[in-house]
Design goal:
With 170 residues, the protein is mostly beta strands. The chain is built from one helix and ten strands; from the N terminus they run αββββββββββ. The protein is elongated and about 90 Å long.
């Protein structure tokens, strides 16, 4: 009977030193975003002179659903935008010139494969993506290049959007 308190103290001490559950090793960023970079015809990063609104579109139960993801961003050189869990996500870039108002819009469709990623029970799941195709209009943007088709929680450029930029006389 005299040993019972000593054994209890030892068990409590061992339980305190060695945790019974898995130590949480969750990634610091569990969200995944598609990263666009805006570049000129020579591949140099530039800041837009227009304000840009980006609307995301996808289908839910055979209905087209739209949501404003970025609203009237000025002097932007890149964007980070989430993708849908559907097989594709469509983005509408709406351009507004500061001096003349509405200028135009371009549509970019990203076809992607969804890759559920499970780390452990404490962290839950994340959705990674693989870009399988890109289509776009040519109203203001010239071309698009796919720089990295794999979208995960590491922040890196996935798509480079090329615009023709004219030099402004100073």
């Amino acid at each position: 009977m005299k040993r019972l308190p000593v054994i209890c103290c030892i068990l409590v001490l061992v339980g305190w030193l060695i945790p019974g559950c898995e130590v949480e090793n969750c990634p610091p960023n569990s969200l995944t975003y598609l990263h666009f970079s805006l570049v000129d015809q020579n591949g140099r990063t530039f800041n837009t002179s227009d304000t840009i609104t980006i609307v995301g579109q996808t289908t839910v139960s055979d209905s087209l659903v739209s949501d404003t993801l970025i609203n009237q961003e000025t002097a932007a050189s890149s964007f980070s935008i989430p993708l849908s869990y559907d097989a594709y996500t469509q983005f509408i870039f709406v351009y507004h010139a500061l001096d003349v108002g509405f200028v135009g819009r371009d549509t970019i469709r990203i076809d992607h494969r969804n890759i559920p990623y499970f780390t452990n029970l404490d962290c839950g799941t994340m959705m990674f993506y693989e870009i399988t195709g890109v289509q776009h209009t040519h109203h203001r943007l010239d071309s698009i290049s796919l720089t990295n088709p794999n979208i995960d929680n590491n922040e890196k450029e996935n798509i480079r959007i090329y615009f023709t930029v004219t030099a402004v006389a100073q």
